[in-house]
Amino acid sequence: MVNRNRLLWAGFTAILAAGVGFSIRGGILDNWGAEYGFTGGQLGKLNGAGFTGFCFGIIIGGVIADRIGYGKLVITAFVLHAVSALVTFAANKDMKMETAYSFIYWGTFIFALANGTLEAVANPLVATLFPENRTHYLNILHASWPLGLVVGSAMCWLLDDKMGVNWKIQLGLFLVPTVVYGVMFFGQMMPKSEASQKGLSLGDMFKDVGVLGGLVVCFLLALFFGGAVFSNFMSERAASIVGWVIGGGLLIAVGVMTKFSMGSVLLFGLFLAHLLVGAVELGTDGWIQNITGSIFSSEVGKFLFVFTSLVMFGLRFCSHFIEKKIGLSPVGILLVCAVLASIGLVLTSKVDTVVMAVLALTVYGIGKTFFWPTMLAVASDRFPRTGAIAISIMGGIGMMSAGLIGSAGLGYARDRFASEELKTTNPAVYETVKAKKESSFLMFGAVNGLDGKQLGAAEENLKKARGEAEKAGVDVKTALDKISVQDKSVIEANIKGSRRTLVADSSIPAMMAVLYLIILLYFKTIGGYKPVTITPDPAPASAAPKA
Questions:
Q1: Cα dihedral: 64, 69, 74, 79 (round 10)
Q2: Listed range (78-82, 250-254, 301-305) with the worst mean pLDDT
Q3: Using one digit for the tens of pLDDT, what is the confidence trace for 4-36?
């Protein structure tokens, strides 16, 4: 007999393990840099492995989930989590930097692969277990992610910043929820998806995705292979061409598999919307501590990130109330959230006190809370024929977008806006502190941002000046006047660049709001939003009985 409550909380614990590990890894990047001498570029690639591994895990897992069953995928993910720890912990100070880097890189990739595989199980499993209220239960499932971020951040603050515990012990703590989810899943009967129960083939499940849905995925894969993979071995132009060739080949493969079905226009719109969700939610999460930290201080930036995560955790248990009591449909919830997220980011760009920042980020936090799980619920409700495939592809799109568009785009925007500010206010200082390597993003022009080392040194000098101001009992705002003209110019340009970056970022949820409004109006024309159930295909005319 299926114990759906136990399976829900097993999935919750599995995603909690992913959130804890993800957060701790982000907190110990500086430890790896100090211990092994990794450059900022190498640390960035280590972070990127956490996105790409997830994408492969969730997409491949989603495609095969209905073929091999959820249980085998859970076992695979559990083994991958254990292997990721062993591979990462194999790095030590006595080996060459390159060797240590390889161990940590592949350990991170395998960890993310396990996380993606688990989501390829947890999302369709919960959607199948609770067909009567998918929005509510998928939100509960994904409340574990912000909780994992909070737990991991708290562990890093205590064990790393305060106690100086070895990074391997810190990272090993993700194995605790890993063991728990393994025990909770062990011996449990798991249902098949509705599509699998009806005996639909893989080609049938892909038809709603079709060429249109494949276009979104293959576009991101082309960017991935052309940028993150082959750019390490050849020129950027050649790598880009190879990436587009691979993306085009995969799109043809999708066409052949679906007999060149165009797919659902609605699902195509949902995929586009989730591409933007990944960019604004996970992409912004990767930068928000840094951006708010530059406006205030690093410690305040961490506090605000944890606060926003706690807002998300609490609210993800409230979607049932919003949907049933307030009367908003899942698409209506998404529309309101997109508007709030856009407003919240604009408000955050204008804050100059911590209290104002808390209020602004509360608006933003409310906005981004329901994006990811509610999008999965809509895809599950409307496209049951796709089984685990559509929502797994959707998760992969969001994660790839976070790494390739959201995080990279915000980094570029900050480089661009900060350099433009400094060029305007003090061009002589800009020529002194500009980065040697150019920053580029998609079709936008290359720019020279601020040199990270010199920016870091200026911020360290400001931190010391603030400390001295606090000891003297004077307003810490006067600290900016106690540092050199160059440091002051760099910091002020960086703050203004950060504010402009948040304004630019607000355009993403604004675009999402337009998409959601169009989808909402579409549902109005067909009688409102309703979940769909699988019905048998109509028999061909030739097979109809004769009169």
A1: -70
A2: 301-305
A3: 889 999 999 999 998 888 888 877 777 787 777
Q: What amino acid is encoded at 446 in this protein?
A: A
Tokens in use for 499? 């504010």
Domains along the sequence of the chain with CATH: 4-416+503-525 (1.20.1250.20)
* Dihedral of alpha carbons 313, 314, 317, 319, sign: negative
> CA dist 509 to 138, 146, 378, 400, 437, Å?
21, 20, 18, 17, 31
Q: Cβ contacts of residue 200 below 8 Å, gap of 6+?
A: 385, 387, 534
Q: In this structure, are residues 387 and 65 in contact, taking their beta carbons and an 8 Å threshold?
A: yes
DSSP code of residue 537: P
| Backbone φ/ψ region at 484: left (φ over 0), alpha (ψ -120 to 50), beta | beta
pTM: 0.81
pLDDT at 172: 87
In this structure, are residues 275 and 216 in contact, taking their beta carbons and an 8 Å threshold?
yes
Question: What stretch of H or E contains 275?
Answer: helix 265-280
